[in-house]
Design brief:
The chain starts with 9 loop residues before the first helix and ends with a helix. By secondary structure, it is mainly alpha-helical. It is built from four helices and no strands. The radius of gyration is 28 Å and the shape is elongated.
């Protein structure tokens, strides 16, 4: 097992000590657990890319989606107005 030294400012060191005490562990174990957790889990971006591939979803950065909200609203208004003019 190797040794790693890091520099901490006083505030961060105090926070670390309080958390270590609260958890009943050591500084080394705490940092090791955090490193393992971070290194084992894929990044959110990687998870998103994996889901896009699996479900064959387009990449929004490359997708050319056109929406015409004004036309959609006009069509909805026309449908409502046309419906009110009908006899019951």
């Amino acid at each position: 097992m190797s040794t790693l030294s890091i520099r901490l400012d006083a505030e961060l060191e105090d926070r670390l000590d309080r958390e270590v005490e609260r958890l009943g562990t050591t500084r080394s174990r705490f940092v090791q657990d955090l490193l393992l957790q971070r290194l084992e889990s894929p990044s959110p971006f990687a998870l998103l890319q994996e889901a896009r591939t699996e479900y064959k979803l387009p990449n929004p950065a490359r997708a050319k989606v056109k929406t015409n909200k004004a036309a959609n609203v006009k069509a909805l208004v026309r449908a409502v107005v046309a419906g009110k003019g009908r006899a019951k």
